[in-house]
């Protein structure tokens, strides 16, 4: 995911579970960046312990509670222009082309990552997610059954990540294990150790001296106009 750019994240459905997965996905990205994180929202409905489980510690987050979405977008843009933040996150239902262009330009000027979490309280608002924006990538996150354990209990959460739009790139979808305490995603063990592992290594065409662990995973890196990017931190397990 490119630095100095605007990225959109939304839940795969209209329910709270997929919405929470989208927020944790954004928190995991912000957790791997240096500096304070500005989180703009219209009401206090975030769980600090949940963000900490995704690697984003409470002492790194500055919450801005605005009265409406127009104010949230103003705070979002001002935060992106600040230049002293690691990332700026905003929860919005609607994002027009004009507003997204302003946010993209602000992110380009400061080099700060902007994460717009698209969240809807009414199904009619979800139709706005299909409208074009100036964001570099657009993601959709859906919760999957957790990783099975050999003993009774709940395993690590799993997500279905859909890269719906990627500027100068291709769309794709991935089944991953949710962010850990360092904000890193992981490939499910069945994919890492399954028969497809060798095929992944061949497609990557790595040199002979490359570490073997690299052949078991593929990083998502969206480069845009030569800007640096964030390695999304897949773990080979």
What is the count of helical runs? Answer: 6
Number of strands: 8
Report the C-alpha radius of gyration, rounded.
18 Å
By secondary-structure content and strand pairing, the structural class works out as alpha/beta
CATH architecture of the domain at 6-145: 3-Layer(aba) Sandwich
Along the chain, the helix and strand elements come as EHEHEHEHEEEEHH
Can you identify the CATH superfamily of the domain at 6-145?
A: P-loop containing nucleotide triphosphate hydrolases
- The CATH class designation of the domain at 6-145 is Alpha Beta
Q: How are the strands of the biggest sheet laid out side by side?
A: 3-2-4-5-1-6-7-8
Instruction: Report strand %.
Output: 15-25%
Relevant terms:
237 residues, 26% helix, 8-stranded mixed sheet, disordered C terminus, 6 helices, Rossmann fold, 8 strands, alpha/beta, single chain, globular
